Amino acid sequence: MAEAVVVDAVRTAHGKRDGALASFHPVDLAAEVLNALAGRTGIDPGEVDDVILGCVTQLGDQSSNLARFAVLAAGWPEHVPGVTVNRACGSSQQALDQAAQAVMSGQAEMVVAGGVECMSRVPLGAARQVGQPYGPAVLGRYDGFDFNQGISAEMIAEKWGMSRRRLDAFSVESHAKAAAAIDAGAFDGQLVPVLAGGRRFAEDEGVRRTTSVEALARLRPSFKSDGRIHAGNSSQISDGASAVLVTTPERARALGVPPLVRYRAGAVCGGDPVLMLTAPIEATRKLLARAGLGIGDIDVFEVNEAFAPVPLAWLDELGARPERLNVHGGAIALGHPLGASGTSLMTRMVHHMRDKGLRYGLQTMCEGGGTANATLVELVA
């Protein structure tokens, strides 16, 4: 079986809801990262076998196979195909897994994987406003539960005995780490600047440098009157795009571009769709067993901060070292543009691995409906 490597990884900065990127059409925003990849690596776009993009709310501006139109918006040759995938919040991580699978199986030699979500233009939950997505059999199986992720996050906090103060302290730390990363220039080599509203946009917009546990304590619960989950310990609604280039080591050498990481393994699993957000725990175990590694072998982790209880339950169950988790902050501070988040996390992780000489990185995402992806990559020395 062939080996798959990630040659480069890029992302836009994440814009806040109704912020700097609100005027961008998602097709055009996706085209920005496609062309950035081509420019940075020197590839001929006409030699790309496929473009696989994640997008969650495939409605309105994000409908009609967005990936295909992103290829055309980028000015790439018409013969380059594109396909849009949806595995909820893990959509672009799934796109990466499928790109690697295509390369490893020999079905493709060079694939772009990524994602985009413009939540300012296509609001969260917009697709649910037409019809009932679950159907009577599913609702009957789970006693009419409406699969509300906020309620699931509350259930996780209660099951693992997490106080609101612990959740808020984790959230404050996410902002602090993100601010420190921005100040240190940790993101500079991965960001694609875009012209938005007449100005250059190249810094994540949602980081709150002055937040505190005391400030978060004043926020009202979002899902239960006596709950622990609120806007400050939940991921931010955001706009953004990201993409990675996957190919073979041989093709990377021919391009003259040293790979960042090799794709070591991927795993996907389902879990309780009511508790919903705990599947990353089992996906991580499945992935480590497949790779023959232990949790202590991994140098850096990205666990998406959909809600603060998600990475904290993951830490409590797996015993990973907290200082290796989300070292530059997560979605609580940096935002969660749903379809783009998988390869945005991967972009942050692989550039950090390269900068610090770290061998193994593991990424996992909770996903609506109770599934999770986990992906393991290894630094190419």
Report on this structure.
The protein is built from twelve helices and twelve strands. Strands 1, 2, 3, 4, 5, 8, 9, 10, 11 and 12 form a ten-stranded mixed sheet that branches. Strands 6-7 form a two-stranded antiparallel ribbon. The protein is globular. The two termini are 21 Å apart. The model has no long low-confidence stretch (mean pLDDT 97).
Keywords:
381 residues; two-stranded antiparallel ribbon; 12 strands; globular
Strand tally is: 12
The low-confidence runs, each spanning 5 or more residues with pLDDT under 50, are none
Beta-strand residue percentage:
15-25%
- Number of DSSP helical runs: 12
Structural class comes to alpha+beta
Shape: globular
Reported for the largest beta sheet, the result is: 10 strands, mixed
What is the straight-line distance between the termini? 21 Å
Radius of gyration: 19 Å
Q: Give helix % range.
A: 25-40%
The secondary-structure element order is EEHEHEHEHHHEEHEHEHEHHHEE
Organism: Actinomadura rugatobispora
Keywords: Acyltransferase, Transferase
InterPro entries: Thiolase (IPR002155), Thiolase-like (IPR016039), Thiolase_C (IPR020617), Thiolase_CS (IPR020613), Thiolase_N (IPR020616)
Pfam families: Thiolase_C, Thiolase_N
Question: How would you briefly describe this protein structure?
Answer:
The chain is α+β, with helices and mostly antiparallel strands and 381 residues long. It is 34% helix and 19% strand.
